[in-house]
Target: ABC transporter ATP-binding protein
Amino acid sequence: MIEVKGLTRYYGNLAAVRDVEFSIPEHVIVGFLGLNGAGKSTVLKMLAGLVQPSDGSVKLSGENIETESEGFRRHIGYLPEDPPLHKDMRVDEFLIWCGEMRGMSKSDAMARLPGVIKTCQLEPVKERVIQELSHGFKKRVGIAQAIIHKPKLVILDEPISGLDPVQIVEMREVLKSLKTECTVLVSSHILSEISQTCDRILVLHQGKIVADGTEVELRGKMEANTSFEVILRATREDVDKVLSEFAELKVIESQVLEDGLLRMLLGSDQDRREEVIKALVTSDIGVRMVKDAASTELESVFLGLTKEAA
Ligand SMILES: Nc1ncnc2c1ncn2[C@@H]1O[C@H](COP(=O)(O)OP(=O)(O)OP(=O)(O)O)[C@@H](O)[C@H]1O
Model:
C-alpha cells in the first residue's frame, strides 16, 4: 500500500534520515519509534509530501509522491506534533471546513462528519469552540481533521504526547478504530505508548531503521542476543581484561554505581553467560548480581536495540 525506498534527507551536512526502507499493507497500524532527534518527524513530513527527500522514493498504491503530488496528498491525512487547529471555530464547523479544503463538497463533508465524530469520540464536544477543549480533546480534533477526507494513509506525529493516563487509554481506542478505514503510521518516543496499539513497530535511530517487527519479535531480537546485566566489585579496566577473552561479547551499557560497584549490560550472539561469570570469579572479581535482560522492561529492550546499533 505504501512503499518507501532509500529515503534520505539532509539538512546541510546532517543526514537526518538515511536510506530508510519499509512497506506497509492496507489496514495495518504501524508504530514509528525513536528517541528525540531520531528523524521520525522528518520521515513523516516526507511521507506527507511536506518535506522534499534528498533521495529515495515514496509510493502510495503504486503512485509516486513526486510525480503525483496533488493527487497523492488527497490520499494522506497528517497530524503534526502541534495540531493545526482554528481555535476560535466550533469542532463541527472546523472539520467541515477541513474537508472542503481537501477537495470535498460541503455536503460530502457534512455527510462524513458523524462518522468522524464517532471514531474520534468527539460527541460530547462537537458543538464547542476548540480553544475551550482539554488537551486530549484537542488532539482528537487533530486526528479528526486528518481523516475527514477519507485518506488511505493517516500519519500521526506523537498523538499521545502530553496526554494524561485516562486520555491515553481513550486515544489508544481511537487509534485502533482508525485502521478499519485506513492504514495508520503513528510516531512516539515511548515504546509502551504505542506497543499496545500497533501491529508492527519500526525503530528509528540516528536516521536509520534499526529494527522492524512486532513487540514480541523486538523482544525476541534482544533475547536472541542473550543480553544480561551484572553488578561487579571491580574496575572497568579489570573487567575489560577478562572480557577480552570473549571477542563476540558487547558492552551495551556500563555505569559506576554510587557505592562504587560496576553495573554492566552485556550482550552476545551466543549464550556465554556461565563461562563469563566463571572467568570473572576466577579472576577474583566479586559478582554481586547477574540478571537476565529478558526480564527487564520493554523500554530497556528499546534502549538495547538503539544502543547496539549506535
Ligand atoms: N528544518 C530543519 N533544519 C535543520 N535541522 C533539522 C530540521 N528539522 C530537523 N532537523 C534535525 O534533524 C534531526 C531529526 O529531527 P526530527 O525532528 O526528524 O527528529 P524526531 O525523531 O522527530 O525528534 P523529536 O521527537 O524530538 O521531534 C535532528 O537532529 C534535528 O535537529
Notes: The pocket of adenosine-5'-triphosphate is lined by residues 11, 14, 16, 34, 36-42, 189 (CB under 6 Å).
